[in-house]
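During the second year of the project, the team shifted from modelling isolated chains to modelling whole assemblies. The rationale, set out in the original proposal, was that interfaces cannot be judged from single-chain predictions alone. As a representative example for this report, we include one of the complexes processed in the last quarter. Its constituent sequences, exactly as entered into the pipeline, are reproduced here:
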Amino acid sequence: MKCPSYNLFFETMSSKLRVKILDLLMKKPMPVNEITKILKEEQSKVSHNLKRLHDCHFIEVERKGKERIYSLNKKTMVPLMKLVEKHVQCYCKKECYKK
Amino acid sequence: MKCPSYNLFFETMSSKLRVKILDLLMKKPMPVNEITKILKEEQSKVSHNLKRLHDCHFIEVERKGKERIYSLNKKTMVPLMKLVEKHVQCYCKKECYKK
DNA sequence: ATTTCATATGAAATAATATTCATAAGTAGT
DNA sequence: ACTACTTATGAATATTATTTCATATGAAAT
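Output from the structure prediction step:
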């Protein structure tokens, strides 16, 4: 079992594609080929990026026949995304820097 | 006023030096030359990285004579760090994957 | 106005990361 | 055992980010 560092945590989150994948998995678990179809990205590219996400325990895998079903680690990801969204919105909306 | 994106948020957090700077500012606000001395890093390097942190509103500045005092945006940074720490610890300690 | 100190900035050089491509590995069916 | 299908992986290449270096800016003091 790998032990993710602070930096690896954020580095892994700092890729557009990886965040897109996480957003997708927010809806429901799905196999690799479904992710590639929806995001229109190459399979190996997606697999490499899934590996990064998995190394950080942002996602989990389960075998189902030939497929591998990836699912989100909601315990960490949901509060994280909420926190970031709050911060981003705060500094994008007028209300927040009018005070 | 710049509006940080999700990716910029995480990208900015994904640098060892920048996280070190944030950790320092967690203790107290300080000017650039104090940061450079403590971290033993070049001034311009520190300044470039402070800019990134500031663009994302992770830190704030205040002028004081020739110096510029940087301080942490604790509102976002404290809960963020706690969240990450929790996640990292969970996947580093035995208890968490024994279940 | 010029010197000094503190910090910022632009651009080239360097380092780190991601993507691509070819191929391997695993599974299920015939 | 062979084929088809799904996903993983290694290594070369391409892309992106960081650092460095030279210099600019800005504030205070003389």
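Residues 11, 15, 17, 42, 44-45, 48-49, 63, 65-67 of chain B lie near DNA strand D (CB under 10 Å from a C1'). Strands of chain B lie at 30-31, 59-64, 67-72.
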